[in-house]
Amino acid sequence: MRIDAHQHFWSRARGNDYGFLTPDAGVLYNDYLPNQLEPLLGKQRIDYAVTVQAAPTIEETEWLLAQTSDVDFIIGVVGWLDFDVPADDFARAVDSLCRHPKFVGLRPMLQDLEDDRWILRPQVIANLRHLAALDLPFDILVYPRHLPHILQMLEQVDGLRAVVDHCAKPVIRRGILEPWAELMQKISHFPAVRCKVSGLVTEANLEHWKVSDFAPFVSHVIACFGADRLLFGSDWPVCLQAASYDEVVALVERLVPDTWGEQEMEKLFGLNAMEFYKLNPGRETD
């Protein structure tokens, strides 16, 4: 079983809460919906996908859940909630989302917030502890500059089931490894944290990237997290700024070690996503 653990849908007609979705966004300034993704998955023999929020609103999360409720190949939705709200309000909001069979986790858009230390606000920490108590997955969307704060957060929120999206967006286009590499190694010491091998092509030179550009970065997260804690994600349609869906899959397949066999590839391309998001392909949906 193969799973794309990170992709997006959006529609320009549904609202103006997509801060990035302007005419200047190029190829992204279009609608991207399930019927467009399905043939791409089929060509790569990918059975299921996890849809991740793209706007910091509960309205978009509810729209995603409605859009995918009857789409069999979408196996989960990672939504958005404001974590900087009173604990009772947060708990009620989480409980409401958990009633939907395809809701599998939450992601605040940390990379876009003005306060790089937002994740360390006392109310946010309290609500993250509630998430950890529920063992509900948490997606971490950050740049390398946020990683020191993520480390502090993980030290304060014991056992949080979390995944670093897009390898924390290292500066691939300039080949800058440090301090990203050291910080990712420290984060990997938390056993409940995983890393998505996703979103890399848009951190490289969009028009002239080479496979070798990514090698030191992917090799590092493989050394840190191992085959058991890495998840493949296409980041479609964001990836289209630099590569097709097929090219993204081929890139990751070329970057894994030659020593990896079928077992390691099955973990990266599906089994780890199933375990992390607690996915159940056989369940019936409402």
UniProtKB/TrEMBL annotation:
<comment type="similarity">
    <text>Belongs to the metallo-dependent hydrolases superfamily.</text>
</comment>
<dbReference type="InterPro" id="IPR006680">
    <property type="entry name" value="Amidohydro-rel"/>
</dbReference>
<protein>
    <submittedName>
        <fullName>Amidohydrolase family protein</fullName>
    </submittedName>
</protein>
<dbReference type="Pfam" id="PF04909">
    <property type="entry name" value="Amidohydro_2"/>
</dbReference>
<dbReference type="InterPro" id="IPR052350">
    <property type="entry name" value="Metallo-dep_Lactonases"/>
</dbReference>
<dbReference type="InterPro" id="IPR032466">
    <property type="entry name" value="Metal_Hydrolase"/>
</dbReference>
<feature type="domain" description="Amidohydrolase-related">
    <location>
        <begin position="3"/>
        <end position="279"/>
    </location>
</feature>
